[in-house]
Amino acid sequence: MRPFTYERATDVAAAARAAGSVQGARFIAGGTNLLDLMKLQIETPTHLIDVNHLGLDRIERTDDGGLRIGALVRNTDLAADKAVRRDYAVLSRALLAGASGQLRNKATTGGNLLQRTRCPYFYDTRMPCNKRKAGSGCGAMQGMSRSLAILGVSDACIAQHPSDMAVAMRLLDAQVDTMSADGVARAIPIADFHLLPGDTPHKETALKAGEIITSVTLPKPIGGTHVYRKVRDRASYAFALVSVAAVFDKDGSARFAFGGIGAKPWRTPTADAAAKQGAKAVAEAALSGARTTHHNDFKKLLVERTLTSLYRQREARA
Amino acid sequence: MSSDQLTRRGLLQGSAVLAAAAPTLSAAAPTPKTSGANAMMPVELTVNGREVHLQLDPRTSLLDALREHLHLTGTKKGCDHGQCGACTVIVEGRRINSCLTLAVMHDGEKVTTIEGLGTSDHLHAMQKAFIVHDGYQCGYCTPGQICSAVSVLEEIEAGIPSHVTADLDDVAISDAELRERMSGNICRCAAYPNIIAAMRDVAGEAKA
Ligand SMILES: Cc1cc2nc3c(=O)[nH]c(=O)nc-3n(C[C@H](O)[C@H](O)[C@H](O)COP(=O)(O)OP(=O)(O)OC[C@H]3O[C@@H](n4cnc5c(N)ncnc54)[C@H](O)[C@@H]3O)c2cc1C
Ligand code: SF4
Ligand code: FES
Ligand code: FES
Fold it and tell me: From the CB of A139, is ligand 2 less than 6 Å away?
């Protein structure tokens, strides 16, 4: 790990200001992604700003009946929160499908949204990777791409977004609340938060230099039956090959979001519109524009089968 | 680092091998808890009930602070990347991977390691149960398994659901629950069934 200096921030605005003014500064929350990458020198910050003591660890009702989740709320606490369990069960389910008990005890809401891809070539510093080093090429394109994305990909990068939580946040139309280095607060719809790779895969989110996530806000509960289904190589403690988050209404309408297949948490209105026609139609709509490799072509069929299994589960319950 | 950096040995030696090149840095840190480039930082922990004062390079993981600085070598380093659970300790009442957190981030906090759960003369109930049920073979993963197992029973008691909990509001002990909740602790010797037996034993005792 490269040397760095460390400070424990006690004030949100000051933390953002410091992050914006110190060259090479980064926030550290749970540290479960950042430190992993720093040990491999994929991330090389020269200054760490510890945001764990900013009082951003609360979950509160908003005036319009939604829920404001502090950026430092741990994944375990968010999944176990009473209001989340009752009104946003798909979020509890997605969180609980991710990582391990130990990791969820540390991982935070903000950090989870910003976790970086698990593309094996991004992790292997001997290989070219446009995301890690702009313009160096993409090792995955002609390599082992089994785990990688098939939607929203570009000629420069086919990395998948690895988060389970973010898929549920996308389904629920969350917004990401931030404060910039100059003290200005703004709210970013989750749909616009993660960027597609295009020609610049190293640019991953809408955040500006020094901008800190303060909370993630969910709109008021939408009811319905909440499900999250994750398919992976082992039954626990593994990233998704494919995951589907869904909320079904009594009248057969539904909304869907997908993990493991997109360059960002994936959602498309045409898939929601096909809900009443069944799993096959939803899969077809969701996969429109999919671009696969020899290694990850199987994900298309896996999406359809995962949806089929969700529909069956729903029928069995009804 | 050389091209062997992705080998396990390379990773284990990583922090020792690195040269300390100081970055130049504009002073913009507004709070008192600030380190200069390469400066050692004071870290105060309560480890197994004992207060300790350390001067640490900010890069020091909690795991290395425990093993290399406090010589509490019960806690093990397996992967150093959050992938195996050998380094599991209990911080402020919660199990975490001590390899993926910095010691400085825990200044002022309470840490419990396997050495703090019990001693050879006064074993913790979970330690006893691991012995009775043969919950290990080589024993390398065992300190992490035991710290995790103790926390898992507390998490179930506190009503924290898991991936296999059918009703998020109704959390109860079952083999499936214990297996899922222990998935962050890998055992190369595959002592898994006996670990579950040990945990069920302790859970039964606690209820009685
Ligand atoms: C072995 C292993 C298995 C895993 N499996 C899964 C899985 O199955 N599913 C899954 O979804 N995830 C998985 N994860 C990833 C895990 O969920 C993330 O590491 C975690 O959510 C990151 O949160 P953190 O708080 O630790 O982030 P950190 O590591 O602290 O930070 C991550 C990034 O976010 C930035 N950041 C943090 N907080 C803020 C803030 N408030 N404002 C602005 N920037 C901020 C940091 O600067 C950094 O760039 C796994 C991780 C490991 C190690
Ligand atoms: S897919 Fe993206 S992250 Fe993976 S090697 Fe190519 S550029 Fe890098
Ligand atoms: S050593 Fe920490 S999880 Fe493997
Ligand atoms: S007892 Fe050998 S690794 Fe678990």
Answer: yes
